[in-house]
Specification:
CATH topology: TIM Barrel
CATH superfamily: NADP-dependent oxidoreductase domain
Helix content: 25-40%
Strand content: 5-15%
Largest sheet: 8 strands, parallel, barrel
Radius of gyration: 19 Å
Number of domains: 1
CATH architecture: Alpha-Beta Barrel
Order of helices and strands: EEEHEHEEEHEHEHEHEHHHEHH
Number of helices: 11
Number of strands: 12
CATH class: Alpha Beta
Length: 339
């Protein structure tokens, strides 16, 4: 299966417009886990993604406190080099091994960045990370210039091919860009969480910085089968139990928006999930969407987003639904093309 690709800024990578997000395959037992997850199922899910044509996987050291990277590494070791996907991972969250349920600290000191890079290389079983990203802005007092200089050294040493950031604002992007080009940004972006469209997408488009958004289905809210009743059945350590968008009145607003997508999905003969993901791909400056799944069947539920072409009427209808349901915040409709 051939999926559309887009250049990830000026990095030289051409990535499919949807990629596999491995947050949930880190399993449970840590502060932002999704509950228990079977590793064999995770590997089968990633294999299915590759068979469908997806050519990149996004992970992070903190997912499962190293476990997600280990599972991705197990997949990579079973694949011929010619069939390996691009692998993107992240650093900058330091956890306490003795207290896994404690939230990780946001630390981007040069020495911790290097230490984390070496650990990720070992877990993934690779000699070089395709895209290495800062997960969150530092909270330890380290100037971002020092952090970004450490990233540049890793590139010069051949341990990293391209460098990006996640959850950064325009001011931090500017400070990094002054030292070395920022290859990519990874922001939260969905029909509910639209703030990235206020400034970030435009900045990245103007600076030829790729954008891969996370949680385009709002961690499950914008999927066909999610209900408020499912909340009570979630694992006790599923982070969504305390997530802001899963609390009222936000949850009801999000589900009302999801329901408003059903006629659009029916017109295109696709899932609501596919509509939600395809909507993010309509925004100028957006390169690709990171989409999670825990089973191959879940991948089948959103893969059509890669080829779904939403019409101007669809986008206008969604904007009206956003206003009516009062779900989330941020711009509700992509800017009209000037051509």
């Amino acid at each position: 299966m051939s999926l559309p690709t887009r250049p990830l800024g000026s990095s030289g990578f051409h990535i499919t417009n949807v990629g596999f997000g491995s947050w949930a395959i880190g399993g449970g037992g840590w502060a932002f886990g999704w509950g228990p997850q079977d590793d064999a199922e995770s590997i089968a899910t990633m294999r299915h993604c590759l068979e469908l044509g997806i050519n990149w996987i996004d992970t992070a050291a903190v997912y499962g406190l190293g476990h997600s990277e280990e599972v991705v590494g197990r997949l990579l070791r079973k694949l011929p080099a010619s069939e390996r996907p691009l692998v993107f991972t992240k650093c900058g969250l330091t956890w306490d091994v003795n207290n896994p349920m404690q939230q990780a600290k946001r630390i981007l000191k040069p020495e911790t960045i290097r230490r984390e890079c070496e650990a990720s290389l070992r877990r993934l079983g690779v000699e070089r990370i395709d895209l290495y990203q800062f997960h969150w802005p530092d909270e330890s007092g380290t100037p971002v210039e020092e952090s970004w200089a450490a990233m540049v050294k890793l590139i010069e040493e051949g341990k990293v091919r391209a460098a990006g950031v996640s959850n950064f604002n325009v001011q931090l992007l500017e400070r990094c860009e002054a030292i070395r080009h920022v290859d990519s940004l990874q922001p939260l972006f969905s029909m509910v969480s639209r703030r990235a469209a206020e400034q970030l997408l435009t900045w990245c488009k103007d600076h030829n910085t790729g954008v891969i958004c996370y949680s385009p289905m709002q961690s499950g809210i914008l999927t066909d089968g999610f209900t408020a009743a499912r909340m009570s059945k979630m694992a006790a350590d599923d982070w969504r139990r305390r997530g802001p968008e899963f609390q009222e009145p936000n949850l009801s607003r999000g589900l009302a928006l999801r329901d408003a997508l059903r006629p659009i999905a029916a017109r295109h003969a696709v899932s609501v999930s596919s509509v939600a993901v395809a909507w993010t791909l309509c925004w100028p400056g957006l390169t690709g969407a990171i989409v999670g799944a825990r089973t191959p069947l879940q991948v089948d539920g959103w893969i059509q987003a890669a080829t779904l072409q939403l019409t101007p009427d669809d986008l206008a209808e969604i904007a009206v639904a956003i206003a009516r349901t009062q779900a989330g915040s941020g711009p509700a409709e992509p800017p009209k093309s000037s051509s």
